[in-house]
Amino acid sequence: MTYATRIRRRVAPYVSGDYAEKQEQHLLSSAVCNNEDLGPFIRKVFATGKPDWLLYQLRNFSRSKESEIEDICKAHYQDFILAVDDLRSLLSDADSLKSSIHHSNSTVQSVAVPLLSSLHSLIEARNISVNIKLAFNSVLSCVKVMDFCSRANLHLSGNNFYMALKCVDAIEGEFLDKIPSLTLQKMLQRKIPEIRSYIERKVSKEFGDWLVQIRAVSRHIGQLAIRQASAARQREEDLRIRQREAEEQSRLSVRDCVYSLQEEEDDDGVLNSGAEAGSNSDNGEFVFDLTQLYRAYHIHRTLGLEDRFKQCYFENRKLQMISDFQVSSITPFIESHQTFLAQIAGFFIVEDRIMRTSGGLISKLDVENLWETAVGKIRSVLEDQFSKIQIASHLLLIKDYVSLLGVTLRSYGYPVDALLDVLRKHRDKYHVLLLSDCQKQIADVLSAEKFEQMLMKKEYEYSMNVLSFQLQTTDIVPAFPYVAPFSSTVPDCCRIVRSFIEDSVSFMSYGGQLDFYDVEERYLDRLLSDVLDGALRRIINTYVHGVSQAMQVAANMEYFERACDFLFHHAAQLSGLPARMVDRRRRQFPLQRARDAAEEVLSGLLRTKVDGFMMLIENINWMADEPPQSGNEYVNEVIIYLETVASTAQQVLPIYVLKRVLQNLLSHISEKIVGALNSDTVKRFNVNSLMGFDVDIRLLESFVDNQASLFSSAEPSEMKDALSEGRQMINLLLSDHPENFLNPVIRESSYSALDHRKVLTISEKFKDASDGLFSSFGTRGSRQNLKRRSLDILIKRLKAAN
């Protein structure tokens, strides 16, 4: 039964039966039991006017609680009485235990006294043992320290610094703080820094000695490396020459190809020879001693000075590199350039090896920075020296060595395009100097020209002067002595041009540009078109005074043309361009102006000679009674001379040149005939003199027919066309209808070579002469009247047109 139930039962007689009062009584009881605020109840009873009821309920609640308290106190008193009884029994047991313990303690003490004396003896013996052990360990520690010190001294005396440092580090790390001897400890603390400082000074001195030694070694290494690159280039060039020869044989004659077994050269030959000298290893790498450097680096790293040593190494090597760029102002650069460039090559070969094998002494970035600095210095030196050089061969020698330097260092991974740019930049200057040298050589050759056919007494002379430039007209070797159709100028100039090609290709080869034939072709064309052509024209216009000389020069032009084809092919082959690609290119003969000048001089000399014979025209009777049956006197002399010229020229000149020369002469003769009729010295002429000129022209045409065997079927008619002006003028004046000249169609087909002013002048002279002639033939008056009338119409129309 709960506390609330007991309360309700006790207050039930005093509560009215009203349900609301019971409910309030219950709420009040709950509030008091729960220690809630009774303010709401108090306010309510005062508000309803029933405070007594509240007091009554509170008293009842108090009485009910008092009884409960009483019950609880009774229960607790009984428990207290029981606890007191238990405590009294416990005190009795404690007294018994105390007496038992006292008895046991007496027994234990009587037994333990002998054991305690033994224990004290044992502890004293143990302490003595510990002290002895500590002393022994201290002695052992000192012995070990002294052993390490002895070994350190031994290593120092043997310059084995790394092991000495390891001993010192072992002493400092393992024993220094544990050494029982204070004196020994202080001595070691003072000596260890001194030992390290001593080792640092020694290895720094060794490093300095290595820097001095490696400078000389680098130069030797660079020379060997460049020599190997040169040997490899020469082997490659020999292989390319053999390949070109095979291609040429295959191109010229497929059936006559020559096959041979080519022994492969041992690529390690040069390397092995260098290895025997102690400069190369078996795998082709250069052998040089880096022990001192690696030792110094290792010692500094052991000392904890790695970064400082790296900086020291980099700065010293950079200073060495900069000092290597000091070019002597006393020694010409052409004499010192190989040593200069070899030093640079060796420097960076050494740096590459150190970068790959030192374990971080110098980084790839540091090497690249050194190379960039070196490239800038090299470019500056080369540009300065190139600007001073005025000899093409010197420029070529330096270029070759620079390109070998580039090939050598490119194999070690260094970018060399910037160096090759310097060579490309001075390419034009080199060719200007080379052209100047060739111009002087050509001038010397031409100044010694004797305008005589070249005599060759031996086969080697024929091979050297004819076959080497493909000037032969047949594959059959002639009998010796052999007289060539050209003079010595041709092969001499060809040799100069070939040398120019080889030097030019040599300069542009291995310069970073693979396809340079177009550039080479431009320089070659400049040499031929400007230098050689200009020199030939100066010689032609200055020193050629005889027909035989002019013929020889004109004959030389044909062989120059053959030689030019060979020279362009030769340039293409050296430039690596296949011959079939060159054959596809159509180019104009570069010596065309010189050839035209030679033919013009020859024609001029021949015209001068012919003009001497043509002066016999003055002896013609312009009013002859009868036409000459065998032509006029001058034409016979001219034809004799032409036959002489033709027979001589066909032994020297090419047929097409002979044709042009004869055609030019015939045209000149035709102009002279027409000019004679048109001259002021001839006032009138008759038909008989005109018919004499007709015979002259027929004789000249007969001369052309006699030479027809020398030419093709169409060429004689072309040569006769050179006489067209004279032939058409005679035909016009002898025709029955001269006025047909006024018909454009007829004039174009039959009189295209005539000038209407000359026709007018000559027709007037012929008219005046024909009046007397027509009056003496009465039976033919009508025909003559028609011709005269036609001629009058022609003259009248021409005058009106003028």
UniProtKB/TrEMBL annotation:
Q: Which Pfam families does the UniProt entry name for this protein? A: EXOC6_Sec15_N (PF20651), Sec15_C (PF04091)
Is Thylakoid one of the keywords? Answer: no
Outline the extent of the Exocyst complex component EXOC6/Sec15 N-terminal domain. 57-226
Q: What GO CC annotations are associated with the protein?
A: cytosol; exocyst; membrane
Where would you find this protein in the cell? Cytoplasm, Cytosol
Q: Which InterPro entries match?
A: EXOC6/Sec15, EXOC6/Sec15_C, EXOC6/Sec15_C_dom1, EXOC6_Sec15_N, EXOC6PINT-1/Sec15/Tip20_C_dom2
* GO biological process annotation, one example: pollen tube growth
User: Where's the Exocyst complex subunit EXOC6/Sec15 C-terminal domain?
Assistant: 419-765
List the coiled-coil residues: none
Keyword annotations for this protein, in alphabetical order, are:
Cytoplasm, Exocytosis, Transport
Q: Which domain of life is it from?
A: Eukaryota
Family membership: Belongs to the SEC15 family.
Reported function: Component of the exocyst complex involved in the docking of exocytic vesicles with fusion sites on the plasma membrane during regulated or polarized secretion. Involved in polarized cell growth and organ morphogenesis. During cytokinesis, involved in cell plate initiation, cell plate maturation and formation of new primary cell wall.
**This protein's name:** Exocyst complex component
